[in-house]
Amino acid sequence: MNKLECYKCGNTFDVPYEYAGHNVVCRQCDTLNPVPAGDGKADSWFDALRQNADAFENNFDRLFQALLEYERKAPAMQT
């Protein structure tokens, strides 16, 4: 969690990492406060998931080719 200070009333509150780049409302004065964006690191579980998906996508072609090769070498099914 990040600490955020309301720019209007000065109230300090905790903001979860997944709100980075969004706006949150101060509970004390109802002012909309922008939450600073992250520094490019995985700030939430979704960011980590997206990074893993990107890694999978980058290696998908190699994985697909390996599966095709395995299928070609597999013995024929008996019917």
Spatial order of strands in the largest sheet: 1-2
In N-to-C order, the SSE pattern is: EEEEH
Alpha-carbon distance between the two ends: 60 Å
Total count of helical runs of at least 4 residues: 1
Q: How many runs of DSSP E, i.e. beta strands?
A: 4
So what's the overall shape?
rod-shaped
How much β-strand is present in the residues? 15-25%
**Biggest sheet architecture:** 2 strands, antiparallel
Please give a handful of descriptors for the protein shown.
single chain, 79 residues, alpha+beta, 2 domains, two-stranded antiparallel sheet, 1 helix
Walkthrough of the structure:
The chain has 79 residues and is an alpha+beta fold. It has two domains: 38 residues, no CATH class; 35 residues, no CATH class. It is 37% helix and 18% strand. It is built from one helix and four strands, in the order E-E-E-E-H. The protein has a two-stranded antiparallel sheet. Strand 3 and strand 4 form a beta hairpin. The longest helix is centred in the C-terminal third of the chain and has 29 residues. The chain is rod-shaped. 0% of the residues are buried. The model has no long low-confidence stretch (mean pLDDT 80).
